[in-house]
Amino acid sequence: MNSALRILLLTVCIVSHPAFADTESPDWDALSEQQQQVLKPFKQQWPVLDNERRQRLVGAAQRWEKMTPEQRRQMSKRLQRWQSLSAEEKTKLRERFRRFRSLPPEERKLLRQKYRRFQQLPPERQERLRERWKNMSPEERKAFRQRRLERNK
């Protein structure tokens, strides 16, 4: 669990949006006992971490504390999958996340709904759709996206 938690916190630092940029970050001794326990892997680094990084770590620790054991297990799985990715794959995912975050809220909501629908499909149907997408040319993909956007208006 310690390594999974460490991965969670590092991932949050890498891909999360700075939500507390103007807030003063706490010193290590000002953290609650629970926060210190969750953030223990960062204790030695804490004095040299910048304000934004500390705030993101504190936020991640607070979210971790609120998770159920099942949510923590799921997060650990995701983090292990993240850790297994190459640097190039991580860079691509970070860019995709940045583009997603730059979309208007209604488009992000629509994409989340579509993703949930896709996740509910049988695995073989998901695989067929993935293969179909991979076999499309960039022009075909663009036309497909355009048709989908027009259908959702």
How many individual domains? 2
User: Which descriptor suits the 3D outline?
Assistant: elongated
Radius of gyration: 19 Å
Number of helices: 8
Q: What is the number of E strands?
A: 0
Mean of residue pLDDT values: 84
- Low-confidence segments, ≥5 residues, pLDDT <50? 17-22
Output the helix-strand order. HHHHHHHH
> In what range is the share of β-strand residues?
under 5%
Classification by helices and strands? mainly alpha
Oligomer: single chain
What is the CA–CA distance across the termini? 45 Å
Biggest sheet statistics:
none
Helix content: over 70%
Please give a structural write-up.
- The chain has eight helices and no strands.
- It is mainly alpha-helical.
- The protein has two domains: 1-102, no CATH class; 104-153, no CATH class.
- The longest helix has 16 residues, at 51-66.
- The radius of gyration is 19 Å and the shape is elongated.
Write the layout of secondary structure elements.
Blueprint: H1 2-15, H2 33-38, H3 51-66, H4 69-84, H5 87-102, H6 105-120, H7 123-134, H8 138-151
What would the keywords be for this entry?
single chain, 153 residues, mainly alpha, 2 domains
Describe, in short, the structure shown.
By secondary structure, the chain is mainly α. The protein is 72% helix and 0% strand.
